[in-house]
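Quick one, probably user error.
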């Protein structure tokens, strides 16, 4: 089994509450009849959510993403995904917790 697959499985098993909430809206083509995958390996990264049909990646960030090294890493990831032709949408945990409908509207606008 590939390392990426093991990591993806662990991340799915250990999903954050915010990932679970957003996944409840995206799974089983529940959002605009689009197929999303979660904790999916792409290149040498694992993304929170991905829709290949619309080339969208959705990331949900917690407080540790505000740390300087993590911000730099996130910028590198985003740049890499954009070079592959993906649109990257980032939400903070608080946005999912406090304004899920607003987050869903933002995704819909991009779709």
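Nope, works fine. Designed sequence:
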């Amino acid at each position: 089994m590939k390392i990426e697959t093991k990591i993806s499985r662990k991340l799915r098993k250990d999903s954050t509450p915010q990932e679970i909430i957003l996944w409840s809206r995206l799974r089983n083509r529940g959002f605009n009849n689009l197929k999303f995958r979660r904790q999916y390996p792409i290149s040498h990264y694992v993304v929170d959510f991905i829709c290949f049909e619309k080339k969208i990646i959705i990331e949900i960030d917690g407080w540790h993403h505000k740390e300087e090294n993590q911000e730099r890493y996130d910028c590198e990831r985003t740049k890499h995904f954009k070079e592959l032709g993906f649109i990257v949408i980032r939400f903070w945990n608080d946005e999912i917790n406090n304004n899920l409908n607003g987050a869903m509207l933002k995704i819909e606008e991009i779709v």
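The chain has five helices and four strands.
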